[in-house]
Amino acid sequence: MDNIETLQEGFEDSKIQCPHCESINCFQSTEIETKTVSYLCLRCGYTTNTFFTNESVQLQNSFNTSPTLIKELSFQDEERGLVWIPSVLNMGRLGIIYPRGTRNNWYWEYAKIIDIPHNKQKDYPVVGKENVFYKSRLDVENAQKFEWDDFIGACEEMGITDQLV
Asked: What is the pTM of this model?
């Protein structure tokens, strides 16, 4: 492991070699108090944490709400005994990065949040709220594509790389 740093109070961070794509831009973050470990590779976008073991309730709950593609792309890290999955990175007003495609031909998409023109908002009602309409939406129709090994490119486009590295 490379040098251990404390980038955020209460955490120890270091770089490891990604078991999926072998990049050296994979980050391991350990919460000091709980010893919970999280991982994120900035090249391939795969992630895992201490709770994502093969039989864990946390992993099963994640799979229950994940698209089929995420389940199909998951893999077992034998060294750590953890299951890794492609990230879905939702940054609110900045948009979302998510995997798209098929098991053998997938890529990242970055969809921005766009404003809905006032005269079109009636087409986007908030469920359960009478006369309340969304003012913005996710622009998946114009999402930008990035190769499977360019997760960092999608993050750069989103404008968050200074927060990741």
From this structure: 0.85
